[in-house]
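Predict the 3D structure for this chain.
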Amino acid sequence: MQAHVIRDGFFTFAPMNTEYIDWGTVPYAEAWQRQTELFDAIVHAKAQGEAYHNSIIFCQHPHVYTLGRSGKENNMLLTEQQLETIHATLYHIDRGGDITYHGPGQQVCYPILNLEEFGLGLKPYVHLLEEAVIRVCATYGIAAGRIEKATGVWLDGDTPRARKVCAIGVRSSHFVTMHGLALNVNTDLRYFSYIHPCGFIDKGVTSLRQELGHDVPLDEVRQRLEKELKALLQR
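Done. Predicted structure below.
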């Protein structure tokens, strides 16, 4: 079932076949493989004119660093042996962006979507992900926003105290997306000190816990993020 909506003056459809799934804590390699399978299934179904469903995945990962296809190796500041010492791994992956960290206490979200169904191009889609996180932050009394030419969600972005609370990096092919966003909730921010996060050396990283001074229930954040994504995708 699909509902008719108007976007940018044109009739389009608001897809109703999107599943919201919580994978819990999952190793990064496994999540990447499972994402790829869902992504490939949509691409294949589109080519064959077959039915499929969109998926929005929520999960956490054990300590891991991911380096996007345009990233620079020297933004990882540790050797392979040092990575083992902090119980972390490094993956070179097929999303945009530079290097980032995933770990316990971080809400990761991987939308596997056919953007054509939602009437979205890649840039408006990234803007939508940012907007969902900005709205979630606002529910905690945190004023978040964007920085020009710096994808993600930031606090005090136009000041020397600019700090990122959410990293975003996506892959899109045949208008189908994978990868997504990582919102720092109760994240151990020390792990960001071992990299130049997203390639920046002059900006900080923060978390909801850092800003609020107390832990925030991760399930609560996931539910709020799911609510905002649903609202934005069905506009």
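The two ends are 16 Å apart (CA to CA).
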